[in-house]
């Protein structure tokens, strides 16, 4: 079967030619994470996040036509109240359905054909299609380049065919649908989840909200939001490569990405998961033609859906500088030792914001070369961004402020309504398995192999054996 590349559609990225190689593209961006610890969602979180995004305009870029942005987007929780108000069909209880935007052809016949094929794949994966919704858009202010490669936007709503799977269990099924749609049809979904939804595109930070009028609707509510402004340095923009991705927003670059991708490809034959089913129809896990950030997100997604917590997955991929830290807690050190045999570090410099719809957090890789600042107000608002000042707040309301530190993690749990500190996060993950025992019982070090005396053979002896 010919595998299609979803990142090649609706893109201004040219093919490799002359001295230009799209695999060498890098980008330098800005992000913000907004969350509330009050326990109830609200449209105010969307408003604050979009305001923060507009204040990151200098972190993005525009094309020569001045109206084509390198990319901007927002990730929020599934807006259940909004969907129930605008959809002409019924939805099951929150958590029992998944939703996501599909980038589809503008041609009506091609679009309907692709939707029918997606429905067919969904049925094969044990999913029921509840319906489709055309997403309102206003391309008035887009540049000609963005309009020329713009897709049609339709939201797909799904549930488990048996009506039992919910939350992450449902997301595992939609993951299989999405991966197959990408490989077999070339369809790109910014997200397809029961927990979060992403609105993004080849727009500027100022254009995102006017382009997607949904975002201005007061019925769209969330307790968290992640926004991103893309600056693709000396590179070309794309609708699908705008951020946030499904789990992360990234500022910086992954300088080890080629090796990381190669190792993921090399290990595919050994991957297995009882809860994800047969993975061979979903390969490659890391899509050719994706950006370094997109590749990182694809691996995070696999690790999280395969049963690890999101902080666990991030710790695997972005470890601390643990090898020579004698002061590190032994359990945490054992965690990193064990996982170093499973996953090589995705080294930056990189700052990452991440969310699974319940927690929202950020981490800075061990190089520590990307900024990250946060503040907490007396009413439970948390704003983390790639720089201070993205959101104006009365200094008298600020009860805490700080910065991301190399190798450290910052996490907000919107359900328990508290900030979880780096040590608590990592101690919890580090003590979740007998990592040290597994390393000691199974790891083989080269220096422990039997030593044998090296014998220097004479030339006639070597020649005789070579001819044997």
Judging by the overall fold, what is the CATH architecture?
4-Layer Sandwich
Order of helices and strands: EHEHEHEHEHEHEEHHHHEEEEEEEHHH
**Percent helix range:** 25-40%
**Total helical segments:** 13
Query: Which residues form runs of ≥5 with pLDDT under 50?
Result: none
- The computed structural class is alpha+beta
Average pLDDT taken over every residue: 93
Report the principal-axis shape.
globular
Largest sheet features: 7 strands, antiparallel
> For the record, what is the CATH homologous superfamily label?
Aminohydrolase, N-terminal nucleophile (Ntn) domain
CATH third-level topology:
Glutamine Phosphoribosylpyrophosphate, subunit 1, domain 1
Rg from alpha-carbon coordinates: 24 Å
CATH class label? Alpha Beta
- How far the N terminus sits from the C terminus, by CA atoms, comes to 45 Å
* Number of extended strands: 15
Strand order of the main beta sheet, please?
A: 6-2-7-1-12-11-13
Number of domains: 1
| Share of residues in strands | 15-25%
Please give a structural write-up.
The chain is an alpha+beta fold. It has a single domain, classed as Aminohydrolase, N-terminal nucleophile (Ntn) domain (Glutamine Phosphoribosylpyrophosphate, subunit 1, domain 1, 4-Layer Sandwich), CATH 3.60.20. It is built from 13 helices and 15 strands. A hairpin with a 4-residue loop joins strand 14 and strand 15. The longest helix is centred in the middle third of the chain and has 19 residues. It is globular, with a radius of gyration of 24 Å. The model has no long low-confidence stretch (mean pLDDT 93).
